[in-house]
Amino acid sequence: MPEQEDNSVTKKGRNVGEDRDVFFNESIRRKDGVYAVWHSGPYTDRTESITFIIDGGGSAITAGIKGDLLIPFNATIKSVTLLADQTGNFVLDIWNDLIGNFPPTVADSITASAKPTLTAQDTYQDATLPGWNITLDKNDVLRFNVDSSSTVERVTVILEVDKPVSVNNDATLFFTAFHPMEVINISAVYENPATGTPPITLDVERLQGTSNPGTGDSLLVALFDLDGTQNTVFNKKGRQLTSARKLSPNDRLAVRTAGSLVDFSNVVVTCYLKFFGRGDYY
């Protein structure tokens, strides 16, 4: 077995927004070549809250339309909560339509017969939402209409939603060549496959000069599918790799994913590279 010369040449990580998806990459240099490893944490739906406040301005809330809210992303409603300033009665309806059909009307109600209701209460929660149309699309407009109300002067409406993580041509750098090198083998394995709409793929690309991640040359004749068998190592080598597998000094490698990576988690991509003139190591 070749002797290991250096431990970690590079190792780094990053948190991505509120998703807190973590990406780690490292390179292990050996006498016969280099192992470049990329690891991603879970791509999971992100729970967010959509909040709308109905305020009577110091007086009891009256019936009628109270306002509109534009939804800037796709989401699925998981629950609804009402928080009132005092005990009272209150019935809310929510209407939804595309911004192109603005304004929503009562015919666009999403609550069916399960309207959020306070009956001598100051709080209400429902996570079952029977009959609700729970799907929200980007640029939908929600209109909040009070069917009836007494006593309460202020009600906060909270919709808890799941916002899916959808990655399209998301590319992450993970290796820079420091000598003329050639990628010999690329392997990929993941804990849980993606459950979004196919195709859901992973590519390894070569970046040269000032090319941005996501615009490089693919190393793969056929991309890795991310909706296949979990905990199974998939390898690509030889004729499964393109001519872009040959790297010059300062060429970079990046992992690029495409598709909706819902429920996808813990993928590890390993590239084995050899130095030119040092033989073949398969």
Explain the overall architecture:
The chain is an all-beta fold. It has 2 domains: 4-45 and 166-275, Sandwich (Jelly Rolls), CATH 2.60.120; 46-163, Jelly Rolls. The protein has strands at 4-16, 21-30, 33-40, 46-55, 64-71, 75-98, 117-126, 135-136, 140-150, 154-163, 167-176, 181-192, 201-207, 217-218, 224-225, 234-237, 246-247, 252-259, 265-275. Strands 1, 2, 3, 12, 16, 17 and 19 form a 7-stranded antiparallel beta sheet that branches. A hairpin with a 2-residue loop joins β2 (21-30) and β3.
Secondary-structure blueprint of this entry?
Elements (H helix, E strand, L loop, with lengths): L3 E13 L4 E10 L2 E8 L5 E10 L8 E8 L3 E24 L18 E10 L8 E2 L3 E11 L3 E10 L3 E10 L4 E12 L8 E7 L9 E2 L5 E2 L8 E4 L8 E2 L4 E8 L5 E11 L7
Antiparallel strand pairs: 1-2, 2-3, 3-19, 4-10, 5-9, 6-7, 6-8, 6-9, 6-10, 11-18, 12-16, 12-17, 12-19, 13-14, 13-15, 13-18
